Amino acid sequence: MTLLTVESPNAPPHAELDRLAAIAEDVIARCRRHGAEQVEVGLSIDSGLAVNVRLGEVETVEHTRDRGLSLTVYAGQRKGSASTADLDERSIAITIEQALAIARYTEADPAAGLADPERLATWFPELDLWHPQGPDAPTAIELALRCEAAALGYDPRINNSEGASVSAGRSYGIYANSHGFVGRDYGTRYSLSCSVLAGEDDAMQRDHYYDSARAFAELATAEAVGRESAQRTLARLGARNLSTRKAPVILAAEVARGFFGHLTGAVSGGSLYRKASFLLDARGQQIFPRWMQITEQPHLKRAPGSSAYDDEGVATGANPLIVDGVLERYILGSYSARKLGLASTGNAGGVHNLTVTPNAGSLDELFADMGTGLYVTELLGQGVSLITGDYSRGAAGYWIENGRIAYPVHEITIAGNLREMFNSIIAVGSDIDTRGNVRTGPIRLAEVTIAGDSGGDED
């Protein structure tokens, strides 16, 4: 028995999408008959399998299947929204009634309404996101057990485990509105992860590794993920403190993804119209070095953030965000765009495969160029203010000397101001992490304040 079955081995679920589209169009027509001037509706069906094992034993096996309908109606500039997880006729009728009732009593909002019709997608490229040949539960269990066994058997110093997990999921759905737009969305996602521990008592260290892909066959092998998690854990044994200092810093690609996430948060419409961003009125300003290029690439095949349209049906396309270090635009949906007197950028729901162009070589080359400094592989805490740009987060990683890893470090804090940190980026490495919606290599910053233990190493 396999987890995912469809009409043919790799065909999208066309019949199910046709059924959901018919429901959506019927709901829109009924809302219009009851006085709604504009209507949008989303229907989705999600299913999946998640397996967790620990120390050679199965801890959980979970099958999920969720479905839902979300509805928004506009009576003039008054908005009403309601949703249901039940797609039978009675539940849909109640949802329509509730949305219409809410719209009668909400306050009018001049920015409310559907996306402008001329901005809606009319081209739907094949993005190769649907790969339903996934594992059944016994296969997923076997993979997780092999992954953990590879980690635990890698070295006798690996003496405990937080477990290994395998997940597989598919989702498909419809977004439709009263402008006549009907969009069909479908995709699959798979992941494999492992986390283990090494050492004793206060010297215990842990680390993990994972892989994710749209196609199950493209995941790293269970043994490779297990071994990588073990290697990362062992590398952290003997971690030291550092004394407070300023030093060059390299952020690992996994960490750099979140670092650029602060950029997208600061230039997103919600932060801007609420005046809660350190990058207010920054469009057209240079906020990165002149060589920096950051572009959305929503039509990459099999990528995590690929889509032909955003959450409002607005067409997506390759769209520069940073050109020669200059902020070219903000990240806007229709509502925030109207609040700012601008146009939607096709980003209702977020960015799509935001890609940071590298200007340097491999991670080892970044180490060699830096010479001495800190390589950050993990960040802790939430000490980031998008209002001021002040940045302070717990960190762990490795101290670099003579272009090579000298020893692991932990229990330190890196601090600065994001605007200054953005401008101080010296290099983006070529080892690009493609597992997330922000695609970047490791980044090297000229100098960052490192707060550590007054009794730490003085290198």
Task: Describe, in plain words, how this protein is organized in 3D.
The chain has 459 residues and is α+β, with helices and mostly antiparallel strands. The chain folds into two domains: 14-233, PmbA/TldD fold; 239-459, no CATH class. Helices cover 23% and strands 34% of the residues. It is built from nine helices and 17 strands. The protein has helices spanning 14-33, 89-105, 137-152, 222-235, 253-266, 269-273, 334-340, 363-370, 418-423, and strands at residues 38-54, 57-75, 78-84, 158-177, 182-198, 205-213, 245-251, 294-296, 319-323, 326-327, 354-356, 373-380, 390-401, 404-417, 425-428, 438-439, 443-451. The strands form three sheets. It has a six-stranded antiparallel β-sheet. The chain has a five-stranded mixed beta barrel with strand order 7-12-13-14-17. Strand 2 (57-75) and strand 3 form a beta hairpin. Helix 3 runs parallel beside helix 4 (222-235). The radius of gyration is 25 Å and the shape is globular.
